[in-house]
Amino acid sequence: MRKIRSCLASVGAGIFHDVKARLPWYLSDWTDAWNYRVVPAAALIFFSNVLPGIAFSLDLIETTNQYGIAEVLVATFMAAFVFSVFGAQPLTIAGVTGPITVFNKTIYNILANQPDPPNYLYFIGWVYLWAAIIHWVTAILNWCNFLKYVTLFSCDTFGFYVSWIYLQYGVQVITRQFSGGFVSAAVGIILAILMVLTSFIFQSLSQRPYFHRIIRQFFADYGMPISLVAASAMAYWGRFHSADVVTLPVGGAFQAANGRPWLVKFWELDGKWVGIALPFGIILWILFFFDHNVSSLIAQGSQFPLRKPPGFHYDFFLLGITTFIAGLIGVPAPNGLIPQAPIHTTSLLVMGFPTRDNGEEDYVAGRGDPVVAPHTEKGQYEVSAHPNDISHPKQIPVAVVEQRVSNLVQGALCLILLTGPLLHVLGLIPRGVIAGLFWFMGADALQGNGITRKLLYLIRDKSLTAADEPLRKVRTSRLLLFVGIQLVGFGVTFAVTQTAVAIAFPVVILLLVPVRTSLVPRLPFTPTELSILDGPTASPHTMESVGGSL
Predict the structure, then answer these.
(1) What share of the chain is helix, strand, coil (3-state, %, to 5)?
(2) Read out DSSP for 369-391?
(3) pLDDT band (50, 70, 90) for residue 502
(4) Is the model's pLDDT at 378 over the cut of 60?
(5) Which of 27, 274, 331, 414 lies in the 20 to 30 Å Cα band around 255?
């Protein structure tokens, strides 16, 4: 009886504690936005969210003829509005992802092969409703506490998979242009390469000792948007214009695909299909449970000096609401984005110089609050080029501008983009530029991935490797074994998404967690090696919402 009472008392406890912890910070979430970092963050995340979302949906749009650009923009705005205004984790960026387009397209193909197929949007509406109900049950019963078992092993593997999906989609966007002629496709390739090169050039210049620091910061903040605009303009310059490059397809302002009404009456679906939609709803729940929560974890990773509390249970309840609304209005269901979510947090970093005295306080730009500066570790001081060889400190992250405005602004821009004149401008962007954006974002995400760093360590000249490099304490055979398991997980997930059973790939992704918790500890790793190779994705401060880390 006591156990029953304890279980009943815990119902909804996660949501309650999330709201209780975050509510006192709500006003400051708006006032803290009075900071310049919010401007480049909103611009960067707008371009890196809406354009890949549209590009991911192109295959879904052209295959099903049930969606259009308007649906993608509305879904992105809805997610941004809900999570920026009502969410407990406004730094997490949600939108239309590649996995949801694969999921929706696979369902369309399955239904198309039926002798008497139901209305596609009605069926999707029920799939989303079933998934939303399971989302709400998950949040109320505190099942998000399962996230304590999600470590860098799973996050790095999933992030590695998403990075390669971005690279693959870039190739697909290019190859499909050959149907419009070789010249058009060739110009598309040139524009894609131009987009990638200029973006990385700006990124490289922002990290070099050239130019004034304000100019370097400008390159870091606006390099990618400038590259996108420049590469798009190149398509209309000189003889490139005669190539008639393939651009993004756009419809009427605020108009749904095929002129259908925005309300989807999915309750009119035949009863037998309602039951058939349930297993698809369960698969969608598995996808969103891992994808959205891992996006939130990475956006609040331990490398970010955050001070405001998270709220995984409450935000997952909100995700159920956005999933239900998506089915009701006939748009792809949005959820947390990788790599956009961590990109957003990174763009909001406030950099400062460390102090040698761990007790000293630094002023956080844009706020009035002091923060304790991180303790200066070895490697945070670099050698000066001055003749006297005086060491001077490198800038390190000292704070994050934790606020709601940048997320809301990028969502509002999506809604503004639905107006006639701006839709016309959107329709001028060549698909080759979008391919280049995919390549840049995928390659950039790979650079910071844990698997990539371990692979680069394996081929690094050990005589040029720092003596205090933690991986030196891991035997090479064990490092190879650990990375090998991650690469097998990546390979299986990637392979499944290329087959007829692509709809089952969320299950494969979720299996990464028990592999880490049950299989890996049984392998010949020492506790020290495992602590170096793996660890919590987020800090104890962030993991408090789900009962701590493993």
Answers:
(1) 65, 5, 30
(2) -EEEPPB--TTSEEE-SSTT--E
(3) confident
(4) no
(5) 274
Q: Each residue of 338-360: b (16+ CB within 10 Å) or e? A: bbbbbbbbbbbbbebebbeeeee
H, E, C per residue of 203-218:
HHHHCCCCCCHHHHHH
**Mean pLDDT for the chain overall:** 86
Neighbours of 515 (CB within 10 A): 16
What's the pLDDT tens digit per position in 191-216?
999 999 999 999 999 988 899 888 99
**CA separation for the pair 264, 115 (Å, rounded):** 23
Give CA–CA dist 481/153, Å, rounded: 13
CB-count exposure of residue 411 (10 Å: 0-12, 13-18, 19+): buried
Cβ neighbours of residue 281 under 8 Å, at least 6 residues apart?
Answer: 126, 127, 128, 129, 130, 131, 133, 134
Decide: residue 364, CB within 10 A, 0-12 exposed, 13-18 middle, 19+ buried.
buried
pLDDT of residue 4: 61
**Radius of gyration from C-alpha coordinates of the chain:** 24
Under 8 Å between Cβ of 402 and 348: yes
Task: Count, in order, helices (H) and strands (E) of the chain.
Answer: 22, 8
pLDDT of residue 179: 80
Tokens of 297: 């974890």
Taking a C-beta distance cutoff of 8 angstroms, is the pair 269, 122 a contact? Answer: yes
Token look-up 């090998």 returns 484
Spatial separation of the C-alpha atoms in residues 84 and 63, rounded to whole Å: 32
Rounded CA-CA distance 152/538 in Å is 9
Query: Per-residue pLDDT tens for 142-189?
Result: 999 998 888 999 999 999 998 999 999 899 889 988 887 888 889 999
Distances (CA, A) of 161 to 74, 158, 532: 27, 5, 22
Q: What is the DSSP letter of 517?
A: I
What pTM did the predictor assign? 0.86
Per-residue pLDDT reduced to its tens digit, 506-537: 888 889 999 999 999 999 999 999 999 998 88
With the C-alpha atoms ordered 548, 323, 334, 290, is the resulting torsion angle positive or negative? positive
Q: Are the C-beta atoms of residues 47 and 224 closer than 8 Å to each other?
A: yes
Region 82-96: mean pLDDT is 93
Q: Phi, psi (5° rounding) for residue 113?
A: -90, 0
- Two structure tokens written together for 75: 């879904």
pLDDT digits (tens, 9 = 90+) for 229-287: 999 999 998 888 888 888 888 888 888 888 889 999 999 999 889 999 999 999 999 99
β partners of residue 87: none
Give the DSSP letter of residue 256.
-
